[in-house]
TrEMBL record:
Family matches, as InterPro entries: ELMO_dom, ELMO_domain-containing
Chain ranges of the ELMO domain: 139-293
Any Pfam family the entry gives: ELMO_CED12
Source species, domain of life: Eukaryota
Name the UniProt record assigns to this protein: ELMO domain containing 3
């Protein structure tokens, strides 16, 4: 059973769901209650829909009967490596600024600095996190289509606005509204997850867990939060040692994201967490991930090795959906903003 999380807001670095009350959601401008197939022979309606849909690329629209080509992670990354991102790069703060005792403690006991030759790659990661969705760039649409097809198993293109994005755990009908603090990097991470056969299995298992009749959570919004944790870990130099060891940044950040998501799913399932625990779970996850990134990466390696042998599984035979699954309005959610002040210190903004 697909869950719909329509009443969601941001607090600090996390995205939270408010359940109860009226829970009114503003009407999405430009969202037409018509099937795409109904518009094929109506040129005026086609033009109006293309204008209203902020995600429609220039040129002709891909037909539902002629699915677009999937895009690989490397192809999407290459796109960002070849376009002018100078205006976005000006916004980044590559490392956390520390002063006083915090700076001294970090200098004496903190992780090593990132090698000079890797800093351009690090800056690219942080710059992509500043980029939003570009309605004039067909590549962005291909990324969304690829994520949708891989997660759902569909062979056909979907509308780039619609309730099907809520079914995957976005806030509403337009995924563009959920990327604050993580930018397009959040979508690249999902793309990375679904385009490898082993991590795709993991992604589908986590999606399945997110639809559990009791333990449900918004899959894609949770993924965005994991990307934010990865961004912060990179800026705090928690990943520098591993990046220096591998002489790479992007693969390390990708693996760290996947490993953190895997850890969240493990904690969520084994400790029987629900949506009301999400604020605490995310905060604890952030602290542990930044403290021991190497251990986290080893856990991912072990899991993926098991997948290769047909042994890796997060859920086993656990029942993850059913007719008794509660609606979103029946859930009570506690976010970081509701935590006692001594537990919510140290929250961050990207």
């Amino acid at each position: 059973m697909a869950s719909s999380f329509k009443n969601i807001w941001y607090s600090g670095q996390y995205v939270f769901v408010w359940i109860g009350g009226l829970g009114l959601r503003p009407h999405t401008e430009g969202h037409l209650p018509l099937q795409i197939s109904e518009l094929k022979n109506h040129s005026v309606l086609q033009a109006l829909t293309a204008e209203a849909n902020a995600w429609e690329p220039r040129g002709s629209r891909a037909s539902m009967d002629q699915p677009g080509q999937l895009i690989s992670f490397s192809e999407a990354l290459q796109h960002f490596q070849t376009v002018d991102l100078s205006s976005f790069k000006k916004r980044i703060q590559p490392t956390i600024r520390r002063t006083g005792l915090a700076a001294l403690r970090h200098y004496l006991f903190g992780p090593p600095k990132l090698h000079q030759g890797l800093r351009e790659e690090r800056d690219l990661v942080l710059t992509i996190a500043q980029c939003g969705l570009d309605s004039q760039d067909p590549m962005h649409g291909r990324v969304l289509q690829t994520i949708y097809k891989k997660l759902t198993g569909s062979k056909f293109d979907c509308a780039l606005h619609g309730d099907h994005w809520e079914d995957l755990g976005f806030q509403g009908t337009n995924p563009a509204t959920d990327l604050r603090g993580a930018g397009f990097l959040a979508l690249l991470h999902l793309l990375y997850l679904v385009m490898d056969s082993k991590t795709l299995l993991m992604a589908r298992e986590i999606l399945r867990l997110s639809r559990h009749h009791i333990q449900q959570f918004p899959f894609c919004l949770m993924s965005v939060n994991i990307t934010r944790i990865a961004i912060q870990a990179l800026r705090e130099e928690c990943l520098s040692r591993e990046c220096n060891r591998q002489q790479k940044v992007i693969p390390v950040v990708n693996s760290f994201y996947a490993a953190t998501f895997l850890r969240l799913a493990h904690v969520w399932r084994t400790q029987h967490k629900t949506i009301s625990d999400s604020g605490f779970v995310l905060k604890d996850l952030e602290m542990s991930a930044k403290k021991s990134p190497r251990r986290l990466l080893k856990t991912l390696e072990t899991y993926l090795a098991g997948v290769s042998k047909g042994q890796g599984s997060l859920l086993g035979t656990q029942k993850c959906s059913g007719p008794q699954a509660p609606h979103s309005k029946d859930l009570t959610f506690t976010g970081v903003c509701d935590l006692p002040s001594h537990l919510s210190e140290g929250t961050w903004l990207i």
